[in-house]
Amino acid sequence: MSREARLERLLEFLNRSPTPWHAVSAMAERLDAAGFRRLDESQAWEVSPGERLYVTRNGSSIVALQLPHDGLEALRMIGAHTDSPGLRLKPNAAQLSAGWLQLGVELYGGALLAPWFDRDLGLAGRVHVRHPDGRIEGVLLQVDRPIAIIPSLAIHLDREVNNGRPINAQTQMPPVFLQGGDKADLQRLLLEWLEEQNGTVGAEILDFELALYDVQPPALVGVGRELVASARLDNLLSCFIGLEALLESDGSQGVVLVANDHEEVGSASACGAQGPFLGDVLRRVNAQLGEPGDEGFIRLIQASRMISCDNAHALHPNFTDKHDAAHGPALNGGPVIKVNANQRYATNSATAALFRDLCREAEVPVQTFVTRADMGCGSTIGPITATELGVPTLDVGVPQWAMHSIRETAGSRDVEYLTRALVAFANRPRLA
């Protein structure tokens, strides 16, 4: 499989995934094409050894499984998350100011706000409608052309802007949307777009979860195309790499890919890593193929391993002092093992040793990140999943710049590196 072909698939996936619902839809489409069978959580399951299955929850989280042919003894789990920081529309989003219809927004997660100004913004998400026959349905919407913008204030009117000032999300972030528009125009336009994209003639909008997003497409950047620049690399890049590894696994072992929603806001939801989604799926599968009862499930989990994949902070050439001198991962230097003594990452020496050995086997370079001792450390689904399930876990990620910006940057060679390491993990006969 060529590196260039993989990168083209990545760019297509990023372009099709402006929201978690779109990302899960795109992943499910690839799983369907690869022969995976979709399960419904509300129905009884019948699963067989060697089957390839997947299940979604809330349309924004997904668990996909390659079941082993010879007994459910240990699982190789790969974790990621589908959500990214950004601007979500408020329920009563339409507001008027100075002759403009604007959109009231709410911050989702820890978004870096300054880069949102003067960008071409589209609109995407999930809308629930009532059809004329009374049927209620959730449909995806993606307005992939620039329909809104958040204009900067001219420097002549704010001479201190380059000296740094706080940004007020309530008063300074609502984008302009339609000149001379009225509040009713938002509802009208949403209905028109829904009819155009989904054929929902005569439908009534009941509710929505919509987000603004940058319509500038992802790109390979640099003289040697060394970089991937795109929105939502944190953490759609890990979702893509995990899916690639699952599809390239040889099917000899039990492999699980889980991509949870709501990581950027704490993971505490029915479909987040702190919720029961992954545990529910694994218990139902174990009840049919593994040793029954709590005893059998605990034995399965303790024999399994989880690699939580979420991007790491790469050494920034303009801000080298923001890293510990011995722990500054380089773009295109290979996947990064993320370590934190206070358990903000789930890595320990045993799980790190496993990953280093996998990288050796796959001929992949490997790096380590530890935050400076005088700075706070972020977290991800790794410690949460380890806490909920008890599965031995480590946190790794592709190094990137500009985390939580509207446009982030990663190394194009690192996509291949981490994929190869995860394929080696998926195919490894023994985990300990």
From TrEMBL:
UniProt cross-references to InterPro entries, sorted A to Z: Peptidase_M18, Peptidase_M18_dom2
GO molecular function, one term: aminopeptidase activity
Signal peptide: none
Record flagged with keyword Iron-sulfur: no
Cofactor(s), by name: Zn(2+)
Keyword terms: Aminopeptidase, Hydrolase, Metal-binding, Metalloprotease, Protease, Zinc
Stated name of the protein: M18 family aminopeptidase
